[in-house]
Amino acid sequence: MPVLPEKAPPIAARTLSQRRLRCGRLTAVSGNGLAPFLDRRLERLAEKVVAGERLSFADGVVAATTNDLLGVGRLANFVRERLHGDAVYFNVNRHLNPTNVCVASCALCAFAEKYGGVRGWTYSVAEAVDAAARDVTPAVTELHIVGGLHPKLGVEYYEALFAALLARFPWVHLKALTMVEIDFLAQRAKLPVEEVVRRLVAAGLGSCPGGGAEIFAERVRAVICDHKTSGERWLEIARTVHRLGVKSNCTMLYGHIETAEERVDHLVRLRELQDATGGFQCFIPLAFHPAHTRLEHVAPSTGRLDLQTIALSRLMLDNIPHVKAYWIMLGAKAAQIALHFGADDLDGTVVDERITQAAGGEAGAGMARAELEHLIREAGRVAVERDTLYHPVTHSAPAAAG
Ligand code: V47
Asked: Which of 106, 252, 262, 326 could tie 258 with a disulfide, CB 3.0–4.6 Å?
């Protein structure tokens, strides 16, 4: 059994001051007579984790498949506390989906509608600004903007949209368009991705959300999102986005037909790209919601898979600063527990979420800032409001209402 130090030495630059952070409590990882691992294979992982050594693909498969959920959780919690102490980040954000019309027809998706279909909506720029105005207050720091691959909406539409949104809400950061949407806009306009990204940035794009990555393995993509941007292409576009100085997030959709090995492979591919670019801020594991999709026969993910996937992600992605427990998909209760399994971020207040709702999500579509802060404090952590780029936010009293 490895001999583990009481305190984890810091290994990464911290966003908060040292004073506000508490180092990881290693007595909780293993050894010291407290709680040995039930699965002895985790001892080798613990040695590496304590030494700050990278876990291999094979280690990842152990972390993904072990029955010692609490063991793997303790390891991930150790890493999470070494990076962030007790801090848990959240933001005051709003979602905006300008259209759900989509030329792709992904089996995983309950949100999209075909062009001309009765469930479809497409906002003009003015309508999109009006829709945002219903929810955006001075306290909101981010608009998360994603939608379908609409056959008639080109780069010009998004340029006009971003400019109009920033004219109306100049204090808001626009986190908009996944790698899949950027790919579609570039192909539709027959323009290089680089040019599309430059134009969008000039119009006000601040950063990109992490959606659309699903699972990179082509075997899985052929079933859950056939005809969509390939895994290789998703990574290539993220590389370009990062090269142009735009930060992004990354995701993994789990709990459908993928194997544990395919989950680990996905994480290793993200880690390799991050070694090259450093452009990912946050990783978000997304629990698949099957209702109203063509994969409705798949059982929803379990609490165990949710927590183990958070822990696995934290352990494998040693170069991505943040792991988000997206409460909309996990539910508030599991997201709160995930703060002790490797996650350091809860996402935000959200308010009008449609992708998970369409697929039977039951967590609700919005949460007040006070509720988020309560969840975090009640988990024994310290709530830190952040902006999209993870700078701490301090509000004046009227704005703090959220
Ligand atoms: O791109 C689609 C996935 C993503 C389903 O970057 C589904 O900060 C579960 O990417 N069940 C959208 N998931 C969500 C997303 C996201 C959320 C929060 C924060 C950030 C961020 C990104 O959800 C889609 C797709 O990968 N998705 N359908 C479904 N049925």
From this structure: 262
The answer as to whether 290 is a domain residue is yes
Q: Which of the listed residues 37, 52, 84 is the one where a domain comes to its end?
A: 84
How far apart are alpha carbons 240 and 218 in whole angstroms?
A: 21
Distances (CA, A) of 231 to 228, 251, 323: 9, 12, 21
| pLDDT tens per residue across span 341-382 | 999 999 999 999 999 999 999 998 899 999 999 999 999 999
| The model scores a pTM over 0.85 | yes
> Could you tell me if 78 and 123 lie in one domain?
no
> Which residue minimizes the CA distance to atom 6 of ligand 1?
209
Nearest residue (by CA) to ligand 1, atom 28, is 109
Distance 103 CA to ligand 1 centre (A): 18
Residue type, 358: A
Residues 191, 203, single domain; the answer is yes
**68 and 118 housed in the same domain:** no
pLDDT tens digits, 103-139: 999 999 999 999 999 999 999 999 999 999 999 999 9
330 within ligand 1 shell (Cβ under 6 A) = no
Give the tens place of pLDDT for each residue, 252-292.
999 999 999 999 999 999 999 999 999 999 999 999 999 99
Say if residues 95 and 357 touch (Cβ distance below 8 Å). no
- Contact at 8 Å (CB) between 350 and 94? yes
Distance from C-alpha of 327 to C-alpha of 339, rounded to nearest angstrom: 11
CA distance 375 to 363: 14
Distance CA 322, CA 344 (A): 6
Query: Is 400 a member of any domain?
Result: no
Residues 381 and 348 in one domain: yes
Number of independent structural domains in the chain: 2
Looking at the fold, whether 340 and 299 belong to one and the same domain comes out as yes
Give, to the nearest 10 degrees, the angle between helix 303-316 and helix 69-84.
50
Query: Which has the closest alpha carbon to 74: 33, 20, 31, 12?
Result: 31
Nearest to 254 by CA among 182, 312, 203, 204: 312
Domain with 173, as residue range(s), is: 86-395
Is residue 303 in some structural domain? yes
Instruction: Give yes or no for residue 255 CB within 6 A of ligand 1.
Output: no
Q: Which of 84, 117, 139 is the last residue of a domain?
A: 84
